[in-house]
Amino acid sequence: MTATLTTLRENAGRTVASIDAKTPAHRDRAIDGLRALALLAVPLGHWLLGGFTRDADGALHNASPLSTFGFLSPASWVLQMLGIFFLVGGYASVLSLRRATERGESTGAWLRGRVARLGRPVLGVSAVWAALIPVLYSLGVPGATLHTGSTLVVQPLWFVGVYAVVTALTPYCVRAARRLGAWAAAPLLGVVAVVDFLRYGPFAEAMPSWLSVLNILPGWMFAYQLGVSWGEKKLGRRGAWLLLVGGTALFAALLLAFHYPASMVGVPGEARTNSHPPSLLVLALASAQSGAAILLRDRLGRLLRKPALWAPVVVINLSAMTILCWHQTAMWAAAASGSFLGSVPGLTEGPDSVGWIVARVLWLPVFGGLLIGIGRYARRFEAPWQTGTRASQARRWAAGLLAVGFGVFALGLA
Fold first, then answer.
1. How many C-beta atoms surround the C-beta of residue 323 within 10 A?
2. 53: β partners
């Protein structure tokens, strides 16, 4: 046993050293570290703040501990790190576009490559779920449980569509940053503020229900534009302090004076939500997070010079879309299996007791293990697909048709 542990440690040490040695000297480790942090927050947030209830027929339905435990809302302030993800995305896109231009690559070719990297994993998870649904149903999994799982899978995928659109606007973001500097993000903040005033202010009853949709693009583009300005060296420490202090002050004012919902994620039964579409509170949090990230960049970069800390960051970044697309499947797979055993604390039992919170924390390693297992096979969707052979073309057509089928099914749920 001791010899086995020693061998495992030696192999792990060699792997860590190899990853560190293969990292280019110019690699910005802090940016990758921030991206990894934001990525990990997505599954952790969904796993902690999402739950299930089991009905009399044994079927699973989505539930949230936030409906019972309002005091957990501050946890969503920490776990909602999409602001940092978009910030880092804008920064990285600027550098990537610049390198592509230096190589003589057109903006269109650069964009097609970025969109393909986003689209392949989404196509993969959609195709797999489309194939699994009839199989699982025939094996006795209740239709309501499959509906619940499909809803969970679709939830994170909205992000990919928004991120693709924002990425396509990168050249315009660069122009805005060069002309206006860090203030290029201010008009986006203004648009969201105006829309929030119209939908929540004294004229709210006269406003159309679709008005909130206007916040989707400027709301998520705000932090991305900050990242572009950062990448263009138009946003430094002074601006970061302004973002941190100003964002924190605005966040507090919106909560205390304007009574915005405290949770950054949707709570079943609540009339208002902050994230779908983003409210001004989301931008205030993104501002504070972005300021803190910029201020901590150098310190984080030095910390990630340690090979043992750097290696996990590399692995997470290489599996970014796999984590995003499959983490809900991992949680659902555990709950769907547990539903055949009855009411399981922290898994299929309703999230309405302190015991559920404790049990759910204990389930996190299981969800993580399932995600790693799924990722071993799902990671291939992040790699470029082979082209040119009839077999590869047939697989792509089959995957596309299955993904369309799952999309139709998901729209039916909506």
1. 23
2. 61
Give me the residue spans of the domains in the chain: 28-42+63-413
User: 212: which 2 tokens?
Assistant: 């909130």
Of 319 and 396, the one with more pLDDT:
319
Kindly report the average pLDDT of the chain as a whole number. 89
Burial class (CB in 10 A: 0-12, 13-18, 19+), 385: middle
Give tens-digit pLDDT for 55-111: 988 999 999 888 888 888 888 898 889 999 999 999 999 999 999 999 999 999 999
Question: Is the separation of the CB atoms in 74 and 62 below 8 Å?
Answer: no
Question: Are 308 and 364 spatial neighbours (Cβ–Cβ below 8 Å)?
Answer: no
Ranked by mean pLDDT, the top range of 150-154, 160-164, 202-206, 372-376 is 372-376
Q: How many CA atoms lie within 13 A of 167 on its CB side?
A: 27
- pTM of the entire predicted model: 0.91
Quote the CA–CA distance of 138 and 7 in Å, as a whole number: 45
- Please compute, for residue 412, the number of CA atoms within 13 A of its CA located in the half-sphere on the CB side: 9
Residues ≥6 apart with Cβ < 8 Å to 251:
281, 284, 285, 288
What is the Cα–Cα distance from 342 to 294, expressed in whole angstroms? 48
Mean pLDDT of 286-302: 96
Q: What is the C-alpha separation between 74 and 80, in angstroms, rounded?
A: 10
